[in-house]
Amino acid sequence: MNTAHSAGAVRGAEIANEIEAALRSVPGVSDLYRSGSLVANVVDAGARRLGLHDDAAPLVLVQDAEAGLRVDVAMGVHISAGAGATMLAAHRAVRDLLTGHELRDAQIVLTVVHVDESPTADRGAI
pTM for the whole thing? Predict the structure, then answer.
């Protein structure tokens, strides 16, 4: 086992968990969803059912890429907060957190996968 790679994966999971917590406090964010492609999510779901993957794995994907660190987030937003304003606030929250970890050059990819129109959507982030 490559210890450096293993340590990087642990740090990535820790940062992913911190990002999740930060995003849940952003007004307008209704929920977070597992990031990744459809195929990756299907394989992940199968592995979880077989007990080969941890259900507590972060929803946010943090990975090393050729160009540096990449953060992928799939999120829901409250319709009343506005997707644009919510995405700007979410991006700022992720960028600030990464800057605190001295990861200033990370690529941040935020995707709105759901717009929450429920009557409780005005209550703020969950």
Answer: 0.76
